[in-house]
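So, who can interpret the following?
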Amino acid sequence: MMNTEMFAHNVQTQQNNTEKNYDVVVIGAGPIGIFYAAMLKKMRPQTTIALLERKAKPGHKVGESTLSTTVRAFRAMGLSMPVLRRLFGKKAGLRFFHTHPDTDQLEKEIDVVDIEETFQVERRVLEMVLQETVRRRGIDILTNTTFIPKASTITAAGNQLVCETATGEHITLHSHLVVDASGPASMLPKHFGVYRKNMEMYDTFNCNAYYAYFKLKKDVALRFWEYPTTRHITFPGGWMWFITLVSWQKTPDANLAQIVKRLLDESDAPDPTYPTRKELEAEYGGQSEQMISVGLTIRADQDDSHGSIGDRFAHYVKKHPAIEWLMSHYELVEEPYPEQKFPWFSVTNMAHDAEQFAGDGWCAIGDAALFSNPIISPGMTFGTGTSYMAACDSAAGLDRKDLSRATFAKYETYARTLIDALLDDTDTLYRSFAHVDSYERVLANKFFSGIEDILERTEYSATDPYVWNFLHPDNMQRIKAVKVIFQEGEKADKSPTLIAQEVSALITPYIAEVTSRPEIVALRLGRFFNFYDDLGHYAEKASKERGNVKFMRCSSCNLFTDDALSSCPVCGEPINHQNQEPSSNPPKQGAIAAIFPLITSPT
């Protein structure tokens, strides 16, 4: 139990050792740790919080695709939509294709688009702007500071956290609670011996990822390809992502920091009053450009690639003629960042969790607690959910002066339910990629079970950790039933076609029931799909009704922008709604195979 309501926020220095007192110390100053700190500060304003960051400044990491709940989290942290529009790339939704080694076609395109405005983010920029927002809320960030678990004491009665700076100075932080937001490093679960990568206990597999950055060298002659979505190419055993980012890597840190502060100083002003991206670049010596993050994620138990990361990437490109044709339109960025002279990145056996997600005086959130797979961006989407749920229990524990493990019972139940659901979802998605029909049905189940849930959301709330009805018992039970069909079918050596038929027999009646409900009919869900009607039937459309939002190319800078705005946030060009071409041309052929050119000798 705690002896005081709150430690005084003081500093003492003795013989090269600094001592500081906080209510809560967070390990890691990335988006998940920052969101936790921001939510806790909002719930309990008197709480003193410090974020520990081992790096001196935000570094370059793989670009990320965000979904609606993550953007709501950004806004809750103090980022307005005008700020997001100027720093990051536009995202209108998700797009999927299917292929396999024996075809040169991209088959059965699926998308869900135009629900709301989201973004593709570059992590260096995101961390820089988020760190500035929490500093302005009175939250300390101790950079260049490494936490040393073995030298620290962590108990329900209070913590003494020993840290070391890059200059060798030792810092002792006294806190009631320490929260691990260190990402895949999982510092506290590893320290307490509860970290694990035991996918067998979940009756599933792990995955490996190989990725790099590319630039477009010639247009891809596929309808909708350039519409600002996260593009997924699925195939038996894995999938591929294409994420178009706004990269600021050519802008020095000091210049980028000035741009960030200038934007945040505008507060909640209307969009047209903000300086445009081009004006900011001119005033502060910045430079942005489009870059494409391209990666492959493969089932580890089916990964037959060898050699270097680049060799492994090339293996799957050459294995799939349609992917080889796609990649012929892109060129590799050999030195993507100043400190990254090698172009290739990898993550192997990425999924993990922990035997427990909290203990006396500590808890772990985000990727430090659990991670399943990058497909459809669960890391940020549900990582913010773990932050919120842990913040709720933290606030209650601080008020009660009890930060024992029992205080985090609700959070641990949430995290345990979440990783179980995520791994089942990942399992069914990857197994569905064995056949084009099961791929379509499993994705349709995901879209139609979740789309109703997000349409009425505006601000981040207590229901966001459960977004898309993902943790609804009915959805979890249905996913488990689909997983059983796949696993038993594979054990019985059934053909992928037969398994797909059994999956369809389970999912199709559910979609028919959902889309026939009067309240769902009233939503006109077909507005959000180019290939589904209001009742969830897959079909080609002559045109798509406008969704909640619509994105059009600016006639000046050629980048996509929300057509509801009066001017382009990038270049300031007035948006002429009458003269603008549609954001994407409607289908003009009977099937994607009809418009996708036959590839006889991919290059």
User: Anything to note?
Assistant: Confidence is low (pLDDT under 50) at residues 1-14, 580-603. The chain is about 35% helix and 20% strand. The chain has one domain: 11-250+288-528.
